[in-house]
Structure formats: structure tokens, C-alpha cells
Amino acid sequence: MTALPLVFDAPRRGKPPRHLADLTREEARAAVTELGQPAFRADQLARHFYRGVTDPAQMTDLPAAVREELTGALLPGLLTPVRTSSADGGRTRKTLWRLHDGALVESVLMRYPDRATVCISSQAGCGMACPFCATGQNGLTRNLSAAEIIGQAVAAAAAMANGEVPGGPGRLSNVVFMGMGEPLANYARVRKTLDALVTPAPHGLGLSQRSVTVSTVGVVPAVRRLTEEGLHVTLAVSLHAPDDELRDTLVPINTRWKVDEVVAAADAYAERTGRRYSVEYALIRDVNDQPERADLLGRLLTDRRAHVNLIPLNPTPGSKWDASPLPAQREFVARLRAHGVPTTVRDTRGQDIDGACGQLAAADRVDGVPAVALPQPSLEPPVEMGAEADQ
Ligand code: SAH
Fold this sequence. Notes:
Blueprint (H helix, E strand, L loop, with lengths): L24 H10 L5 H11 L13 H11 L5 E8 L4 E7 L5 E8 L4 E4 L3 E3 L8 H4 L2 E4 L2 H16 L12 E4 L9 H12 L13 E5 L3 H9 L5 E5 L5 H7 L8 H15 L3 E7 L7 H11 L4 E7 L13 H13 L4 E3 L16 H4 L26
Parallel strand pairs: 4-7, 7-8, 8-9, 9-10, 10-11, 11-12
Antiparallel strand pairs: 1-2, 2-3, 3-4, 5-6
Helix pairs in contact: 1-2, 5-6, 7-9, 10-11
The structure holds S-adenosyl-L-homocysteine.
GO molecular function, one term: 4 iron, 4 sulfur cluster binding
Protein name: Probable dual-specificity RNA methyltransferase RlmN
Main location: cytoplasm
């Protein structure tokens, strides 16, 4: 397998149109005032946005004459659903979104008996080049704007609230940054997104901080920066190997920041927030699943505020690697637990729709395998909004 370069700086592309979710509350109020409307209309628009209302006709608290101007100026449709695929009887739904410039990203909504989690993308593609990850193999297209990231969570919250997922109307409870991209390589936009996720309505989705998880390959300076923010969101570190020699090959950023530095940065985050971090470890047959590595990982994490989340490798196209067989998984878990390290094995929801960890690779497949076409939820205003208005 040829090694890809690490890419931190996203290519510059045309900016998405201005959107309320990219603005601070003051900026949004100023923007509305510039349009000749009272500032409180910004709050009304925010309420509609976070509830997933995109059709101006439904915004009955706004004067009919200005609905379209205001939505056009501040709530442009940034995410156009191209395709929805579902699995688990509809309780796992993957959506492929097209962005204003044609870039594609995916998000996955998973409903469980006790919670509903959306896995969102922070970049179109990814520059981190992990060889076992489909997204990483396609390289980085660009950073997403805050509104583009937030919009994925808003769409999921609306799908739950509107009863589009089997099980009746419900609430989106969790957001994980485990879709496409490296969230900490798009720091400022992800930081804004975190605010929007945890700010109470009408200016946010009102999720609890602990139910939001930022997953990173270990961009150490950015983990430190996040620590300084004083947030209490959950941190997940994609370790995948306890030793530098192997991790250099599985998670190429390890050539910059080593295992010890990554773990130390996560410890500092845990210290500051009082919250345990999760260590993600994809179990790859005969690559990182040996009993000795389990012991090495166990020794590394003993007496740390870490919880290990093992993910049997999800197959990606063209990869020679495979998931560890069950007996190897069980042995790995037993050894970690023997070291006193809390350990769970993650389910592989959505694997059959390429919606599981590391399988999101929209760019590669837009014209490829047709997914199950479901009726599209009306997440976007019609393109020709109000075209008949003066007929
Ligand atoms: N860039 C971030 C978030 C995206 S991936 C990160 O790396 O943490 C979310 C998780 O899925 C990461 O732990 C990632 O390493 C893991 N992953 C990637 N490809 C995978 C695969 N093929 N099978 C199982 N897990 C995978």
C-alpha cells in the first residue's frame, strides 16, 4: 500500500453562502437589521433553523412579505440530500449530502432503544491518510463551514422529532464527530459547532456536553487548545496501536506526535474536565490484535482515565486488511480488563450500507453503487422558492 502524505491545510475553495449558524448572535442581529428588520427576527430565524424548519411558508411568525428575503439571506440551503440509505429496519440511516460547490459528505443517524446518535462529518474527505480508513484514502477536499457541520446535526434532530425514524417521534441525544474528516484539523469551525450543539434553544440544539464526542487522530496542539476551552465534551482518541513503531504506519500523524504525547494530552483533558476519554482501537487481524499488544495497551492505560472502545475493522474497498476474528477480539478484551482498563467492543452498525466507522467515502462513490432510494425528507426549501408568487 502506498503511503499518502499528511495534509493539514485544506485546499481553499469558494466559501459557502453566508448562514446564520456561522454568525454570532450579535452578528446575526446586525445582519437582520441591515435588511431593515427588527433584530429579534434573528432569534426567530434561529428557532426555525435549529428545529429543522426550512420552508419559509412555515415561518408564520415572520411577516409573509419578508420570509423569503430573510431565509434567502440567512438560511440558505447548504446541504442538499442526494441519497439516503438505511439498515437495521430503518433505525440506521446514512445520508449523502451535496454542498454548494458539489463536494459530498455523509452523516449517519443511529437510533437505539435509549438514545439516538448522529455521526457527522467535519471535512469533505480527510488529510490524515490512515491506511485502513476509506475517507483517509481519498484525501482532503476541503474544510466544512460551521453551518455545514451544524446542519447535519439539525437534520438528524429534525428527522427524529418528525418521526422519520421507526420508533415514533424522539429526540436526538448524541453527536459524534466520527464521520468524514479530522475535526481538530478544522478547529475554529468545529469549536463553533460545539457551541451550537450545546447551547439551549432557540440558539442551539441544547444537547448535553457529555453526549457530544470529538474524535481525533491526536493533533496534540489542538487537543491542548480544546482543554483550555473549559468545555466538557467527550474526547475520543484514535490510538489503534500502543507502540510508536506500529502507530507510525496506522495513524501517520504519529510521526509528528507520539503515543506518549497523545496520551499525555488526553490525560490533561481528562484532568481538566473530570471526564474519562475514550481510546478508539480498530482491531485488525494480525496487524494490531496480538495478545502482546493488548498487554502493552493495558500497561499504557492502567490508572489513566481512559475507556477503550474496540472496533472490529470495517472492510474498506481495496484494503488487504480484515477484522480480527472473534476469539482474538475476546482475548484482547480479557487482557485489557485484566489490567483494570474498562473496555467495550463497538457494534458495527450500518456496515452493510458502508455507514460504519471508516467507511464513509462519499467522494468515491457518488456515481457508483446505487443505494436504497428512500423518499427524501423535505430538508431543503424548493429550489425555485416562490417562483409562482406573482403569477
Ligand atoms: N478523524 C477522526 C474521526 C473520524 S473516524 C479520528 O480519526 O478519530 C472515527 C473512528 O473510526 C476513528 O477512531 C477511526 O480511526 C475509526 N476508523 C477508521 N476507519 C476504520 C475502519 N475501516 N474500521 C473501523 N474503524 C475505523
